[in-house]
Amino acid sequence: MYKVEYKVEDIPLDLLMDNPYDQRKRSGDIEGLAESIKEHGLQNPISVIKVEEHFVIVSGHRRTHAFRYLKRNKIPAIIRKESTPEDLMIDLAIENMQRKDLLPTEKGAVIEQLFYTIPNVQKNIARVLSLLSQVKVYGKTENVGEGFTDEDVISAKHFINMIGMSTTAASVYIRLCLLPEEIQRNVVNADNTSLIPEGCIVTKSAYELTRVKDPKLQKDLFQKAVQDKMSHIELKNVVDELIEKNSTIARKGNRGSAKRKTEDDAGTARLTKKLLTLS
Length: 279
Hints:
By secondary structure, the chain is α/β, with parallel strands linked by helices. The protein is flat and about 65 Å long. The two termini are 32 Å apart. The protein is built from 13 helices and 7 strands. The strands form 2 sheets. A 5-stranded mixed beta sheet has the order 1-5-3-4-2. It has a two-stranded parallel sheet with strand order 6-7.
């Protein structure tokens, strides 16, 4: 287990560096946040680690941007002391996953980066998915497969537990990162269909697109889903029908009759209610 120590200091803004592992692509209303800080002060210090002569932001990017907007010279910061680079990555992942405004594909990217700290994953997203599959069957088979070790599987289980997510849910978010970029940036969180922004789809619907392997077909299905305002079930039925007619379009694990559920599909069905609150 890793241990984090910290102290609080006022850090010059020109010594701060953005966190390279921060997966959020949006900053939100920086001007509004700046006005709130100007009126009420900074309620919580940002969190940083010291790297040589600079400080890398662990959490507090928006607060930092707000201080820069206000032309402040320094910002209160908790200076953390991570014992290893892997500990830093784990800590960053936990910080990121706690953010309510994280998009589904951003969640997938966080999980991906977290699993990249396991050497045998070899920084390969397909290997992340393979390891998650090994976690599902661990203890049910005699040997760990796919070139992984017992230690790899135990580390993966530990990571999943730390971020409070099942292996199936993690696999869903990871697969979203394999979609074309134009689809990824239009997958959103929404509690119900009336809250889905124009031109966007939710997590469950985006997952259905990952069941086919051709990026062009994924884009065509995405456009149809958006234009026809298709529900998750409607899009799933369309994908089922396409795979039923031509199983070669399906990614591995989704071939065969649409009436025969694969493990992924069964897991997704069990997560429907849970993901509804996330997407």
